[in-house]
Amino acid sequence: MNVIAGVRDFATRHLRESGIFVAFVAIVVLFAALNPNFLSPNNLTNIVLQYSYILILAIGMVMIIVAGQIDLSVGSVVALTGAVSAVVVIREGMPWYVGVLAALVVGLLVGVWQGFWVAFVGIPGFIVTLAGMLLFRGLTYRVLDNVSLSPFGGTYYNIANGFQNGLLGGYGVDVFTLVIFAIGVAGYAWSQWRTRRGRIAYQQPVESMPLFVLKIAVVAAVVMWFGYQLAQSRGLPNVLILLAILVIVYGLVTQKSVFGRHVYAVGGNRHAAELSGVKVRRVNFWIFVNMGFLASVAGIVFSSRMNGAQPGAGNMFELDAIAACFIGGASTTGGVGRVGGAMIGGLIMAVMSNGMQLMGVPQSIQQVVKGLVLLLAVAFDIYNKRRAAALR
């Protein structure tokens, strides 16, 4: 009974986060029941490969939204950076790493350009990035001369399509993949234990020990099951390694660094942040530079996945990234949101898209469903705020 009460109390105190997890599990169970192939090793691998670039964009977008801004240009930046890589590698015949560096430099310059207008000129991010969406799409057409370029081949192609497998041998499954996932689970458990001890030291409320152990066990079981499925297929995708590194780094930046705390302060109350000594303009500038960088990373991954660059690449990516953040718990008014939540939101979008595709649902209906899910997520955010205000 104590465990049940603890679960109920934990869910109540973390309604938004627990609601996201419950929704994600429910969607996975639904599609698994409707299509037995949904949880097959090959399909799970395809989900990772097909939607990794949206998750990369969501990492940067959640920081933008937390700071009370928005970026509508990331889809066009994905197209532009992929186009630059294609021109350098395919048309000019230069090494793959030169194309990667060129794309990263372009993404950083885009971030500097938009950050300047937002932070130092004072134009709202919505307007600056709306202009950027048009500007960078037009530049993409110019860079590609209105034609597609392909194929990359070689190492560049393997950025998003390659796998790490066979490094430790295998017995019907890839042992290396299982070892990496086990290390990840151990790291997660250690991190959660440290966080719990820190909260206890500062006399903050924590869940009971049985509930804490249960949470770690459930996460470990799910993660290891997922790793086992990948190990049965083609091994550990390169892009999943890249995504894991980005999630860990940006999770630490947003939750443990001074800059991360300043981002939340600016989004929560800009005026109070200024009075507290936070350099608001600098924060706004660097979050857009960071978004440009991550958009270029997504552009590299997407062009690698497609094995080429197209003028229309990245269309609507910005809306998928924004939807992932709001579904994952980010607030429309800023100051609230986490990288982990954005990842869950992005996975919900990915699972829904993949599941509906397997079922043969028309594209038009898929867009309707995604729109309704986003609307319900924002409505849930508003409900939580009103509920919190009523309890004060």
TrEMBL record:
A GO cellular-component term linked to this record: plasma membrane
Cellular localization per UniProt: Cell membrane
Lineage: superkingdom: Bacteria
InterPro entries noted in UniProt: ABC_transp_permease (IPR001851)
Leader sequence residues: none
Record carries keyword ATP-binding: no
Regions that span the bilayer: 20-39, 51-67, 72-90, 96-113, 120-139, 171-190, 211-230, 236-253, 283-302, 364-383
Coiled coil: none
Keywords assigned: Cell inner membrane, Cell membrane, Membrane, Sugar transport, Transmembrane, Transmembrane helix, Transport
Keyword Transferase tagged: no
A GO molecular-function descriptor: transmembrane transporter activity
Record's bilayer topology term: Multi-pass membrane protein
Function (record text): Part of the binding-protein-dependent transport system for D-xylose. Probably responsible for the translocation of the substrate across the membrane.
Protein name, entry field: Xylose transport system permease protein XylH
Species this protein is from: Isoptericola variabilis (strain 225)
